[in-house]
Structure formats: C-alpha cells, structure tokens
Design goal:
Structural class: alpha+beta
Order of helices and strands: HHHHHHEEEEEEEEHEEHHHH
Distance between the termini: 36 Å
Helix content: 40-55%
Strand content: 15-25%
C-alpha cells in the first residue's frame, strides 16, 4: 500500500541508513555474533554518519530534528537488514529522551556530545532479577549521603550492558515511597563498586550485548541525579509509549521483510514437480500474512503520525506493541514452515529471524502487560 507518512527528506535519510548498513554493519555482523558484541568502531561510525542523537539539539552535536519519523526509518531499515546487534533505537529513542528532557544544562554539556558521537554508549537499567516487568517491585536502593547517593542492588537483561559508558539506573530513594519513591541516577563507567556480570547467552540477537549489572556501595554524586528526586516512575511512564512504538515499528517492518523473502522463495522452490507458489495452501498462507501485515502497517503508521504530532495515547502504543510483535512471531513461524527443512538452517534469513524476533513479545513490557494496560484503560 502507498505510504504518505514520509517526506523526500525522510526517504533521503533512508538511503543514508542503507548505505551505512551496507558499509559498516552487514560485512561485520556475523563476526559480531560470534563475538557476542558489536565493535565500538561501528558506534563511532554511526555518530559520524549522523545516526545518533537525531533529536538532540545541534548545539550538543545532535541532529536537532525532533521528528520520530527519522527514528522510524532507522528502525525499519535495521529490522529489514536483520541487523539486531546495534541497539541504536535503545540509544536514540529510549535513553536519549531522558538525557534531553530531564538533564540539567551542565549534564547535557557533559553527556550529550559523546552520546551523539558514539563515544558514550548508553543503557537503561530497570529490570531486576526478582521484579521483571513490575517497575513498582524494584529493590535497588540509593541512600542519600549528603553530596552523593550510595547505590546498592542488581539489574539483569540490560541491553548494551557490556558496552555502556552511561547507565540510567532506576533506584529506590525513599524506602516506603512506593512508586513515588524512585529516582533516576546516571552511573558512569569506572565508578567504584559498579561491576558487570556475564554477557548473557541468548537464543537470538547474539551480536547484541545483554548483561547483568551489580552495584555495591557505588558513590553516585548528586550531580548525576537525572530529573527530580522521587519522580522516576512518572518519567518512566511518560517515555514508555515511545519505547513501545519503536518496538512495534521494528516488528512490523521485520514481518513485512520476512514475508517478502518467503514469497520469493515459494516462487522458486519446487515440490512434486511444480513451484510451491502453485499450491493453494501456500497461496492462502501468503494471502493471509500479506493481509495481516497490511492492516498492521496501517495502524502502526497512524501511531507514528500521532506520535510525531504529540498525540499518541499510551493505550494505542500498547496496542501497537502487542499486535505487531505477536504478528511478527506468527508470520516468522509460518514462513519458516513454508521453507521446510531449509527454514531450520541458520544460513537462511528466516531461521535467524525466528531466533532474533522471539524476544519482542517480552521486552518493553510483555504481551500480557500490554493487554493489562489496554484493559484497564477501557474498563476503569
């Protein structure tokens, strides 16, 4: 279907992203998967190409264009390329807004230039071993010591956990404050007591470093408090809609791409002396998936447009995240089946998509959490 969401400037940016992928990412991605981590050189290359800090003001080295459609282009192209290693959307669309909207002028000058150049890779540490998606169950504590906080606790499943130079940590600053007693602290590489655990061995997204983080009496200066004390929960809720939309954008694009790959495959692959595409069952499968992808694309694009206009409702973001990621899971599974035995071989794109995409219904809030959010909004 025709998309009228993007302008010629967005499409020119798309070509820039494709060139970057072809030159700086795809030739190295298999090695990154073997290493379990992306080269820092690639992050610096992304900074030079203007792919980092798209919405960061130009005075700090950013793109100076607060238009989520550029992020959507970046997410779509990385998804279609199957390049799951570089967590650029995490850096740009999840951590970036905290730094641009909550940081003081001094903090912006200290952190944003490196954020946009790729010299300072970022992460956000919310999830804990015993809390999962329950942000109100966070147990990491930050005790006020006058001019600093004493940070203690552990986080897990942290994307960019090994590479990160700046980690935005959600911690409890008021023990009995419930969700109103949490704050955001920026922990920097090299702070005493800040340790990284193992680079977790995942079933997919092998090139993307995901780690456990440990904090033992880490002295975090008050100058590293992000936003007001005890307001983290409000900030997290305000920014989660963009995170969930970003995941939905990637899931929709990945589903469309793997359907294209499979459509081409069934036209070429023969069984019983004729192409698979001539079998009615195969045609019905392709027809159903194409229709579901088209309907999903329409809703996701509307959410992108609403977000660009600052009108995206958190419930719609949850709907998009739930539906697009579950669609991707269904499409990839059905496409793998259509590939037969070859679909089980990791040299085929569909097998890697099957492994890399499985996490999407879990991170950013599980499908079950999304349904709960939607249900509460409708039945409150």
């Amino acid at each position: 279907m025709r998309r009228d969401l993007f302008t010629p400037d967005h499409e020119a940016f798309r070509e820039t992203v494709r060139t970057f992928l072809a030159k700086e990412v795809l030739p190295h991605h298999e090695q990154w998967e073997r290493d379990g981590i992306v080269s820092r050189d690639a992050w610096r290359a992304a900074g030079r190409q203007g792919l980092l800090g798209l919405a960061v003001p130009q005075e700090y080295g950013g793109g100076g264009v607060d238009d989520f459609r550029y992020s959507a282009v970046l997410i779509e192209e990385f998804a279609r390329a199957g390049a799951s290693g570089m967590a650029l959307s995490l850096h740009n669309d999840i951590v970036g807004p905290y730094l641009t909207r909550l940081a003081t002028e001094e903090q912006k000058r200290r952190w944003l230039p490196g954020h946009t150049s790729g010299e300072l890779i970022t992460a956000i540490a919310m999830t804990e071993p015993g809390a999962g998606s329950d942000l109100q169950g966070i147990r990491t504590t930050a005790t006020d010591q006058g001019d600093h906080y004493l940070l203690n606790g552990a986080k897990t499943f942290i994307s960019n956990g090994i590479l990160a130079d700046l980690v935005v940590v959600v911690a409890r600053t008021t023990p009995d404050g419930g969700s109103a007693g949490q704050s955001l602290l920026v922990v920097e590489r090299g702070m005493k007591g800040f340790e990284r655990g193992r680079n977790l061995d995942k079933i997919g997204q092998k090139a993307q470093d995901t780690a456990e983080l440990f904090f033992e009496d880490v002295r975090v200066p008050k100058e590293n408090l992000l936003g007001e004390e005890n307001t983290a929960f409000v900030s997290l809720m305000a920014h989660l809609a963009q995170e969930r939309l970003a995941i939905a954008v990637g899931a929709a694009a990945a589903a469309e791409h793997i359907l294209d790959v499979t459509t081409a495959y069934v036209k070429e692959r023969e069984a019983f002396g004729r192409p698979l595409a001539r079998l009615q069952h195969v045609r019905f499968e392709i027809a159903e998936m194409a229709t579901e992808c088209a309907v999903t694309r329409s809703f996701v694009d509307r959410c992108i447009a609403d977000h660009t206009d600052r009108h995206l409702h958190a419930t719609h973001a949850a709907m998009a995240k739930w539906w697009a990621t579950e669609l991707h899971k269904r499409v990839v599974d059905r496409c793998l089946q259509l590939h037969g035995g070859y679909g089980y071989m990791t040299e085929y794109r569909v097998a890697r998509a099957f492994l890399d995409g499985r996490i999407q219904t879990i991170y950013g809030g599980t499908t079950e959490i999304m349904k709960e959010i939607i249900g509460r909004s409708l039945l409150a």
